[in-house]
Amino acid sequence: MAHILVAGQIHGAGIDILDAEPGVTFDYVEEVSERSYAPLIGGADALVLRTQPLSAGILSAAARLKVVSRHGVGHDAVDLEALNERGVALMVVGDLNATSVAEHAMMMILACAKRALMADSAVRKGDWSWRNDLQAVELAGKNLLIIGYGRAGRRLAAMASAFGMQVGAYDPVVAAGKWPAGPAVPIYDLVEALGWADMISLHVPRTDRPLIGAAEIRAMKSTAILVNTARGGVVDETALADALVSGRLAGAGVDVFEKEPPLVDQELFRCGQLLVSPHIAGLTAECAERMAAASVRNALDYLAGKADPDLIVNRPDLHG
């Protein structure tokens, strides 16, 4: 009998699948921490993982584990090398959150461009004359640079095009193949693209250094708006705070942070031109239901020998 460990709160649709699955037992730990599920890892054949870390230390106790199914597409907090060493597959849910992420990025672009937070604050303070400052700008005719032209980036391109924006995308990996059909034109020089853009939206994985640091921000227009719904660490938060305080950037929307939850007393949070959200770009009600069902189904399919190889992240010899 297969045993599944679900670590982190998921939509009830995923639990319903487990309840209905014959020959399967499961543990469900709703707390989001590594220590909360660690005592149960030894009995698990599959782990459905929310946002908690998965370290080599925890994996050393996972004698039966065959597959880790991420409730999402990112896996920065998972020790992939340790999984490979133990012959454990890592699966993701594919593009189920692409629409949610794209919509969130579009919302942040709009809110920053229209100065939504400042307008709201002015009205609440009785400063009706703020409207005469003409701080809001239109999207029509503006240049949007999408960095990372995957599924979410392509959906955002379609949305922005409907607003009358000129859309360019920087993605060397995608550009090396056949450029996908759609409104975004490929851009091959990042520094040149940063200087061209009025709005910039990030949709790339985290690497060992920020993609957007002080030098990249200096290449941007002072009227530019930067939005990050990708991963914490993609943007140098200190450089971003400096740019917002000095007026080097007109605004920013940030959904993800280098440390989560972030420290609220840091300089970045004292910037009035900053719109923030708690890593929720992919967490709509609809998307949460889709991801819960998909992550549970991925775990069950892998144990049954019928996993979709396109959803397996790691070593090729695990794809069978």
What does this structure look like?
- There is one protein chain.
- This protein is α/β, with parallel strands linked by helices and 320 residues long.
- The protein is built from 12 helices and 12 strands.
- α1 runs parallel beside α12.
- It is elongated, with a radius of gyration of 21 Å.
Residue share in helix: 25-40%
N-to-C span: 21 Å
Strand order of the largest sheet: 8-7-6-9-10-11-12
List SSEs in N-to-C order: EHEHEHEHEHHEHEHEHEHEHEEH
* Structural class estimated from helices and strands: alpha/beta
Major sheet attributes: 7 strands, parallel
Number of helices: 12
Mean pLDDT: 95
Task: Categorize the overall geometry.
Answer: elongated
Low-confidence stretches: none
Beta-strand content: 15-25%
Compute the gyration radius: what is it? 21 Å
Count of individual beta strands: 12
